[in-house]
Amino acid sequence: MKQVPFERIGRIKKALSDDALPGLVAVFSKMNTDDLLLIYARPPRRTATVPGTAITLDAFRSASLTEFDGPVLGMAAVDLIRSDVPTKGSMFCRLDRVFRNRGMVRELRETWTELANHVRARIAHLAEHHNDSYRQRALAEIAAISAPHRIAALPDDKRRGMVAFVPERDLVVRLSDIVPGPLPAGYLAPDDQVIAFEEARSLIGIPQPASYSVELRTIVLRSQLDDEFGATLTELSWAFYRRWQQTHDNEDLRRAYGLALEIHLGKGDVDDLCGVLPSRDFDAFVRTGAGTFLYRGPLEGDDGGPFGDAAHRLSLDDADTELAGSTAPVRFSLLPLRHAMAVSTPATMWCDLGPILRRVGRTEILARNAWLLTQDLLDERRQREAYEVTTEDLLETMIHCCAIYSMTDPWRARQARRNEWLLEAYETLHRVLELLIQSTDGLRRSYYTALDHWFGCGGKGADVARSLSAMVAVLESRPADLHRHDGPDPDLAGRAQLLLGLGRALLTMLRGGGRAEAYEDLIRPTSERFESTPKVVSRAADMTQPMDLLSVPFWSGFQRYAVIVDAIRRTRAHPIPVRDKIDQLISGIDQLNRGFRLIFAPLHQANILSCLYERTILDTRDLVSQLRGGAALEVELRTSSIAPDRDGSGIVFAVANVGSVAARDVEVELFVSEAFELLDSSFKQTLPHLGPGSDHRFRFAVRSVSDTETFPVRCTVSCAGEHDRQERTFEFVMRVTGVDSGQFHQRPNPYVFGLPLMEHRRFYGRRSELQQLLSHLADRRPQNVLLRGARRTGKTSLLYMVQAVLTDTNGRSGVRKWFGIQRSWHDALDSTRPVVLDLQSIDWPHGTPTATTFYQAVLGTMSDARLRSDESDRLLGEPSVTGTQFVVALRAILRNARGQRPVVLVDEFDILDRIAEKSEFYAPLRHAISTVQGVTWVVASALGLYKEARDYESPLFNVFKIVPLSVLDPEAARRLILTPWEAVSPRSRLRFADDAVETIIEEAGRYPYFIQLLCSEIVDYVNTTHTRYVQFKTVLQVIERQMMIPGSAAWEHFAYMWDRASGVGKLILLTLLSHPGAMDGAQLKATVRRHVVERAVRGDADPLGDYDESLLRLVVVDAVREIPGGGYGFGIPLFRRLLMHRGEREDLEAVADQDLAQDPPEAQRA
Fold first, then answer.
1. What is the Cα–Cα distance from 971 to 564, expressed in whole angstroms?
2. Which superkingdom, per the lineage (predicted)?
């Protein structure tokens, strides 16, 4: 728990002179020095004494805050400009209090207005990189901080009786405007930011307050415009009372008495107040506070104290007679006393005292009164029984108290005792749970025990990981009860399951075995996803509303954490220079540190978030140290679940070298465990070499014998370092999942291969490539793109996705939302006109591509997209079209396009590589592309155009930006395998073991075509063999029995790769085939050369003149993969398997030698 830095803030306040305050919106400090950074809405006066560096809000947006690690004194709306600024919790103190304490209220209102104007002028730019909730909150904050200055400027008669205000229009709604009749239709616009008393909304006829609504009470009290406040509340209470007399709606009676009580509670001390019995005479209660005020302890004197002579004060011990004889139609109390307050007559209405105390600004006192009352009731069993207090009500009360203490302003606590009271409140919560544990049994007892561990994360000296482990262990001990919904409380099993799921997810992340974004749906709270902090506190103050296990503030903090961690994960895996990787990781650590300062949630949840941040910061720092020292190994558990008692199960670790040099003698040792039996010969596996940027999977065959739903998995990973061995131990969690053993049902086959994807919801991965393509269009730049990828890598599908995004004008079809396209890009994308041209579908003259046919195909497709001109129409009928005529036609089309940018998406461009005189075609094409910059070209090519674009002597050199389309990232590959089954009924759904999924991904080389092909074959296999569960061995059986046979789709595809390879290319493949792992580039070339020389298949001076060209072709078609720092290996393991099988049927070396003899080196061809 963070300590509140009172002394540091005190020094900052002391350093601020009065003349430095006008226009000041924030002060940033350092923990170890007195340096300050002051942020102004406008430059400070020249005569002002500024105790530090002063900058304006414009400069603040890009200023570095890394060094300013101390508390912030500022306006709460400053985080609208910089989201990494803490505006809640112990590291933030409100600057507006300084203004008020110095009597500078007018200057405060003016500063608020300047800040509001700044945000209003830039809201579109600021909202660009945020979700819609940011805009909602920004509009609400603008209204809140601009309103005080505007209200102060209103005449007194307009402010009198004001119950709502619209600052953008200086529109006042007075009580006389809405009583007795409603407002005229159209008086309020739908998009008005209405600041109102929450009770008055029903009279005004506006919707219930939104997530970021603004309460009029807060505005008038903070800006000291409350002269008419008491009178307005009185009138409003009478308005509800009179309406109740007419309608007999008890909600109106509750509001009437609540408003009247608010008037009196706002006058004085409410310490220890726990109940109020108002007089039945409403007029007397409003005027004099007539009624009985109940306190939890003995009182001095028996007068009405701060509530007037008509108020009767009693301690709870002396209130039996009063409670029994009271005729009050409405009774108020803290939650534990609600049954005692409703004993006299069923007609008596009970109301929670909490919201009233919150509205008078006594939220912290509410928490203290409820907490101390709970302690009294825990100590006095007779008193609990006398007042019919339930232990469940005590539990709910303390959960709310802990939330209030955690999330209210720590700077308002008396005598700086907030942290002390907070820890004591959690201790009282523990006492309540102990009582519930002792008085229950079965699943209920386990649930309360688990809750005790859950809230134990907020106790003094809490060990978060140990508490979560204990919670999970308790719930896992009752697996059968977790699925029962026929008991007295059908929701209990569901709540226990949710708690178990949360515990497992958090433990997995704390142990480094999970991606945070994968758990966002589980961790998302069930209440509104976005709420302002005041609304969260308001929810906590209303103790009749149950609190979620995870709060909205936790969810916001977790989302922030997940984004940062995902960026760090991508940096770790990205094959970039080590220096760049270190810089990006250090930037990630800085973001983590700033995110850590923003943690704000109930204490037990804040501690969990803190542990997540601290662990990630530590791990990332360790990685940076390793990167600076050489090899750096990262480990990920790829199998998060395992089936019980199955011989074919496995535990798979992915070890990646993210360092700058190769890791030697890599060793992975699996710890012995009672949860599984090892089926391999050893707990240790080794790898002689792992190049930088490379990864390798280590699979241990095991049989799970665990009798729990989860069990820990530990391993040690080491490698030879420069001076000694580097070694790290990792711990993960695996789930034991049951297997369907019922009647077999035929499985539908949802996998489609060989056809391009048209439906965006079935398109996985490729987000970065899509963003690259679209970013140029969004910036309206004349950048042409070459999309380079081997056959079957999804080039056509990606072109269709570009078309789908561009045609999703105004986001109507949801494609842009699906791909997360920034809203600020929409206008530019809407101004494009996509044109898709598939060169494979063209009827070429005599089957041979020509320049004329290409030009006409482009112009014809553009015409189909309503992009035409008289010149283009004329050329479509000409027998021959020149490059110059093509340029003229394109320019004419642009003149008629009315600002629309044509985007020509060309598929299968390699067909044009067969044009007889390529140079005579490519030169005019370059001229057309470079000259007519209003047309954007996105061209897909496997090899031909790629070679031209990289060849310095080619006319197309440097015309295109090359975007390589490589393999899917592992997560997208998993989604491609598993997501199609989500829409299938449970009885027909096919389940995959985790290590089976990993095997599919590895064997298919992460290529979408081969993943779909292999999965389709698996579905056919399980339907034939009635296999209910796809295991590791199932995948291998399908590969061997259905794919490695002549005539299969895989066999034909890979045969094409082998047959099209040159003689040297075939020899390269055979050399790699005989080598167990990656092969160094120089060693590979030397081995091929030795073969050619020894077999004397070529007598040339340079027998390997075409080696580089042959190797490039193999790499481009992904038959061979270049491993960063590790040489070369097979790009697709399935291809390697096929060559091994084919080598059993024919002499592949003889085939290669024959091709070598018939195919002279490139050097001699020239």
1. 17
2. Bacteria
- Inter-residue contact 787 to 941 (CB < 8 Å): yes
Which residues make Cβ contacts (< 8 Å) with residue 39, sequence separation at least 6?
A: 24, 25, 26, 27, 28, 54, 55, 56, 57, 60, 74, 78
Peptide bond just before 488 cis, omega within 30 deg: no
Note the helical H segments in 181-228: 201-204, 216-222
CA 1121, CA 583: separation in Å to the nearest integer? 28
Separation CA 758–CA 800 (nearest Å): 6
Domain span at residue 96 reads 6-130
Q: Give, in order, the Cα–Cα distances in Å from 956 to each of 717, 918, 924, 939, 946.
A: 48, 11, 10, 12, 9
Please work out, in degrees rounded to the nearest 5, the angle formed at the alpha carbon of residue 878 by the alpha carbons of 872 and 883. 65
Same domain, yes or no: 918 and 1001: no
> Could you tell me if residue 847 is left (phi over 0), alpha (psi between -120 and 50 degrees) or otherwise beta?
left
Looking at the structure, tell me whether residues 950 and 811 fall in a common domain. Answer: yes
Single out the residue of 964, 993, 966, 942 nearest to residue 1132, CA to CA.
Answer: 966
Q: Which of 1130, 1132, 1120, 1124 is nearest to 657 (CA)?
A: 1124
DSSP letter, residue 709: S
d(CA 994, CA 918): 50
Q: Is residue 521 part of a domain?
A: no
The pLDDT of 60-69, averaged and rounded, is 91
Is residue 353 domain-resident?
no
C-alpha radius of gyration, the chain, whole number: 36
CA atoms of 447 and 437, how far apart (whole Å)? 9
**What does the alpha-carbon distance between residue 480 and residue 108 come to, in Å, rounded to a whole number?**
61
Note whether residue 450 is domain-resident: no
* CA-closest candidate to residue 944, choices 968, 969, 925, 928: 925
pLDDT recorded at residue 1164: 36
Residue range 96-108, pLDDT digits in tens: 999 999 999 999 9
